[in-house]
Write a structure and sequence with these properties.
single chain, alpha/beta, Rossmann fold, 2 domains, six-stranded parallel beta sheet, three-stranded mixed beta sheet, 9 strands
């Protein structure tokens, strides 16, 4: 599968658009589908691939069909039904879902794919828009080893790390852990920076020194300066994070994991939304501490 092959990419949002572009740049024959046709037209104009009218048409005859949409309902709408990707796929093809969704729908798709003798991988990604544009995504995968081995060389086109975590659903569960950790880190970073301001410390010097010690994190390195500058009009939107945290909290009810900090941060994000920050970056948690409204 490392050789150039025929693939489909369904969903050309801020992540899917550049991911599909990397596949085309690597020489794969890419057919795209997007619910908003103008987005697919823009992608084809930039990358030269083909456009399809339905997910089934896009997936027809492909070795791998990739999906990257919004949530469980969106995934179901492009995977199932007469116009869904599975309907267009031949046996021995592989369906890869990069959407951050529930483990439940991952297992549902895996079962439906198996009935059609199609391989399936739930493969949510981390790294944000910058990671997608720079081919530096981390991909957490659930599925069978043989299917993973066939798909990984193609996924590596836009990934810096791609790891099989276990059976179907394991990729989504791993992404939940990722989001749980990020939520706690950002709240701690917000409180720390706000404390520094109140204490009269130089925020830039502070970040420079503590980022060399045990407090260092990706969030500190990539969001600390913009948090100091109150800049949030970029990055991973609060709306998306609340969607992800909702998935985490729902799964925690099923597996009886306690997520007290995650539940609290989710409510803080609800307050950010109420302030008009639905599309602000997730680092905007600090806005609740530094701006009284």
């Amino acid at each position: 599968m490392a050789e150039k092959t025929k693939v489909a990419f369904i969903g050309l949002g801020v992540m899917g658009f550049p991911m599909a572009g990397h596949l085309a740049a690597a020489g794969h024959e890419v057919t795209v589908y997007n619910r908003t046709a103008a987005r697919a037209e823009a992608w084809s104009a930039k990358h030269g691939g083909k456009r399809a009218a339905t997910p089934a048409e896009a997936a027809k005859g492909t070795a791998i069909a990739f999906v990257c949409v919004g949530n469980d309902d969106d995934v179901g709408s492009v995977v199932f039904g007469d116009n869904g990707a599975l309907a267009g796929m031949a046996s021995n093809g592989i369906l890869v879902d990069h959407t951050t969704a529930s483990a439940e729908i991952a297992r549902e798709i895996a079962a439906a794919a198996a009935e059609r003798k199609v391989g399936f991988l739930d493969a949510p990604v981390s790294g944000g828009q910058a990671g997608a544009e720079n081919a530096r995504l981390t991909v957490m995968v659930g599925g069978e080893q043989g299917v993973f081995d066939r798909a990984k060389p193609v996924i590596d086109t836009y990934a810096r790390a791609c790891v099989l975590m276990g059976p179907a659903g394991s990729g989504q569960l791993s992404k939940m852990v990722n989001q749980i950790c990020i939520a706690g880190l950002l709240q701690g970073l917000s409180e720390g920076i706000n404390f520094a301001r109140k204490a009269g410390l130089d925020g830039n010097k502070l970040l420079e020194v503590i980022s060399k010690g045990a407090a260092q994190s990706w969030q500190m390195e990539n969001r600390g300066q913009t948090m100091l500058a109150d800049k949030f009009d970029f990055g991973f939107a609060v709306d998306w994070m609340r969607k992800d945290l909702g998935i985490c909290l729902a799964e925690a009810k099923r597996n009886r994991a306690r997520l007290p900090v995650t539940a609290l941060v989710d409510q803080f994000y609800a307050q950010v939304q109420a302030r008009g920050g639905a599309r602000w970056d997730t680092s905007s948690l600090i806005h609740l501490l530094s701006h009284d409204l």
